[in-house]
Amino acid sequence: MRTRRATAGATATPAVAPARAGIAAAAVLLAAPLLTGCAGPTDSATGTGGAGATSAAPTATAPTGSPTPEPTSTAPAASGLDVPRTNADLAAQPPQTVIEPVRVEVPSLGIDVAVTAEALADDGTLALPADPDVAAWYRYGPSPWSAAGATVIAAHVDSLEYGLGQFAQLASAPAGTLVVVTGDDASVAQFTTATVEVLQKTAVPWATVFDRTGAPRLTLVTCGGEFDYSTGHYLSNVIVTATATATPTG
Amino acid sequence: MRKIIVAGIAAGALVALGGALPASAADGDAQLSVLHAVPDVTVDVYVNNALTLDDFTPGTLAGPLALPAGTYSVAITASDAADASAPLIGPIDLPLAAGGNYTAVAHLTPAGDPTATLYTNDISTIPAGQGRLTVRHDAAAPAVDVLAGGAAVISNLSNPAESVLTLPAGTVSATVAATGTTDPVIGPADVNVAEGTSTIVYAWGSLEAGNLALAVQTIDGLHSNPGGVPAGEAGLVATNRPADTSGLWFAGLAALLVVGAGALSTTVRRRAVAKSGR
User: Fold this and answer.
1) Which of A96, A158, A210 faces B233 most closely, judged by CB atoms?
2) How far does CA B34 lie from the centroid of its chain?
3) Which residues does UniProt assign to the signal peptide (chain A) (predicted)?
4) Which terminus in chain B has less CB density within 10 A, N or C?
5) Could you give the C-alpha distances from B96 to A80, A231, B72, B107, B238, in angstroms and in order?
6) B47 in reach of chain A (CB within 8 A)
7) Chain B residues 130-149 within an 8 A CB cutoff of chain A
């Protein structure tokens, strides 16, 4: 139960495993042709930092919109300073209400997974549900309804227990693919994919992936690339960056 | 335009953004916030003899101001003063270093006289999943303990000292009691120790006047990030999988699953029988 191979779960679901395997096999059939398409980007995308193109637009950070509840300060023109003021009383602090994502769908790729709020595993990596069909939202980072920053939602690409995960399809997402996130209050946020990168895990700029500033965007993460059969880990992460669409209405 | 904001949280988000400003301001500037923690008196604040905060009321936090490094003279006057010549507090010199983050607090001494203290805020990075909680004693009161969960987490804190804790992110129910006692003089009060954020709590007011209170300042953007996303373990989509033709790959996959399942159940059985499975 440390991190891998949940033995208890395996024994509890022996009957499900073959069915899962069947599904997994079918999914592999679908994924197989795409994998060659994925293999290309593996080599090229590492060098061509597409991330710069997508994260380089912190257009609406709104730093000038500082809260100034007291318009009475007319005089400080003397020093040219307009200093924001806030009520510091403990009871006056704004409640930390965050709409949490509970579902991610990529209709054109057949992805529809539940999302749970997760923090960190013991080793400091993002904690992920064992089931690849349940994705993790990094709860300390932005949510799709935050004013700024990257919402990070990740899921296992596969599992020894459950087989292939739906996020395996992400590697083949063409630019402009619609991603729909549903919040725990039934809010819906829509994004369109901008880039799909396959980056060596040792080279992933995590500060960029988990960036809490800049334009609101969605970052979907899973594994891919080569697999180290001796350690049981993939060597790369598949990172999909999607930008918020104008309005979800319609 | 590309923002999707639910109206209800927009206001809160703005406040959060305001809190984020210091971390993202111009390089080299010092950040100065000012907290008014002297009960019952509205004041004006002069920086280098220029009126900077007019009609500044108790319990209000102003700033942060981005200021070039240097030493600033701050004088705090009655709100009807014509200039800084007859201050209630100061003038005091505030030496601000480049890139530093400071809070100047106008408060009472333990004896109840107005004074001011310049605190240096710790804006170093906080480990992922944790928050920094700083408690500053700025009240006309003796030394105190801060208790959480019935136990003292800060002991013998005296005016104007501070104590800094790094805690797992979450809400802390805290009480303030005279040192060595557990009878609260403030609280219990819920303090949100937000992840990646410095939360600074000021105990201010006067014990004798019965107006002790807690004020809060937050500085966000100090977070660390997860060190990775280990998101696969079976190699089902590996680009270096053993065989590239579909038929062979399916055979391999089937074998893998069978072997995997076998290994798992074997392991379980072994564990059930003997203690050291491997």
Assistant:
1) A158
2) 16
3) 1-21
4) C
5) 19, 51, 8, 20, 55
6) yes
7) none
Determine whether the interchain pair B246/A35 forms a contact, defined as Cβ–Cβ distance below 8 Å.
Answer: no
Cis omega before residue B91 (within 30°)? Answer: yes
How many other C-beta atoms are found inside a 10 Å radius of the C-beta of residue B5?
A: 13
Averaged pLDDT of chain A: 76
Element (H, E) at A218: strand A217-228
H or E element that contains A21: helix A16-47
User: Whole-angstrom Cα distance, residue B124 to residue B101?
Assistant: 10
Helices A16-47 and B246-273 pack at an angle, to 10 degrees, of 120
DSSP symbol at A219: E
Distance CA B75, CA B84 (A): 6
| Nearest beta carbon to residue B61 from set A61, A85, A128 | A85
Q: Which residues of B touch A58 (CB under 8 A)?
A: none
Contact residues, chain A, for B51 at CB < 8 Å: 75-76, 78-79
Q: Where are the domains of chain B?
A: 8-219, 234-278
Q: What gap in Å lies between CA A11 and CA A50, rounded to an integer?
A: 43
Q: How far is A106 from chain B (nearest CA, A)?
A: 19
Q: What is the pLDDT of residues A114-154, one digit of tens each?
A: 999 999 999 999 999 999 999 999 999 999 999 999 999 99
Question: Which of the 8 DSSP states describes residue A147?
Answer: S
Torsion of CA B125, B126, B131, B134, to 10 degrees: -60
Q: Which residues pair with A115 in a beta bridge?
A: A135
CB-CB under 8 Å, B237 with A158 = yes
**Residue of chain B minimizing CA distance to A190:** B4
Number of H helices, E strands in chain A: 4, 11
The whole-model pTM stands at 0.73
Residue keyed to tokens 């391999």: B252
B255 touches chain A (CB under 8 A): no
Q: What is the pLDDT of residues B22-78, one digit of tens each?
A: 344 557 899 999 999 999 999 999 999 999 999 999 999 999 999 999 999 999 999
Chain A: closest CA distance from residue B181 (Å): 23
> What residue ranges define each of the domains in chain A, with the CATH number in brackets?
8-55+95-244 (2.40.260.10)
From the number of C-beta atoms within 10 Å of its C-beta (0-12, 13-18, 19+), residue B232 rates as: buried
